[in-house]
Amino acid sequence: MAKQTSVMIVGVGGQGTLLASRILGNVVLARGYDVKMSEVHGMAQRGGSVVTYVKYGEKIYSPIVPKGEADIILAFEELEALRWLPFLRKDGKMIANTQQIDPMPVIIGSQEYPEKIIERLGDVCSNLVAVDALKLAMEAGNVKAVNVVLLGVMAKYTDIDEEEWMAAIEKTVPPKFLDINRKAFALGYAIK
């Protein structure tokens, strides 16, 4: 059994953070780990912030990840990566999609979208992997596959085999979307 692992999956409503957390939950359950998940929806249905906590290990008592204790943050959008950065462990892994989705204050013109977020993350995060997951999702055949592209990137940093991830995807994703999601995962997994 591995030590306890804490993962935060962060994004905005409609990006598939919940499906990603279910796939991760299924792959670690199949491994025999205890797993706890908690989903927090802000104004998710309006493109607001969404965070899912996933903890797994021998015995897990709470899904909540305190500040400074996330082993991995899987960020589906740049600003969400920056927003949740304080939760990352000092030597934790940040996997950030380079996509920018304007939040409501930017849309209505009361604020500006921050500049150079990926560079700012790189200045303070020694384990940053920045990925154009939207481009890879389009290559896989559907822009909504960003979530599974990012899981593919993250999978390389776990002790779980690619085949186990694929089995979890097959168990979790509806059959009509399986081919796209398999391809999306493989594209993410191939990122160096």
Q: What's this, in brief?
A:
With 192 residues, this protein is of the alpha/beta class. It has helices at residues 17-30, 78-84, 104-107, 117-124, 133-140, 146-155, 162-172, 178-189, and strands at residues 5-12, 34-41, 49-57, 70-75, 88-97, 128-131. It has one domain (5-189): Pyruvate-ferredoxin oxidoreductase, PFOR, domain III (Pyruvate-ferredoxin Oxidoreductase, domain 3), CATH 3.40.920.10.
Summarize the topology.
Elements: E1 5-12, H1 17-30, E2 34-41, E3 49-57, E4 70-75, H2 78-84, E5 88-97, H3 104-107, H4 117-124, E6 128-131, H5 133-140, H6 146-155, H7 162-172, H8 178-189
Parallel strand pairs: 1-4, 4-5, 5-6
Antiparallel strand pairs: 1-3, 2-3
Characterization of this structure:
The chain is an alpha/beta fold and 192 residues long. It has one domain: Pyruvate-ferredoxin Oxidoreductase, domain 3, CATH 3.40.920. The protein contains 8 helices and 6 strands, in the order βαβββαβααβαααα. The chain has a 6-stranded mixed β-sheet with strand order 2-3-1-4-5-6, with helices on both faces. β4, α2 and β5 form a beta-alpha-beta unit. The protein starts with a strand and ends with a helix. The model has no long low-confidence stretch (mean pLDDT 92).
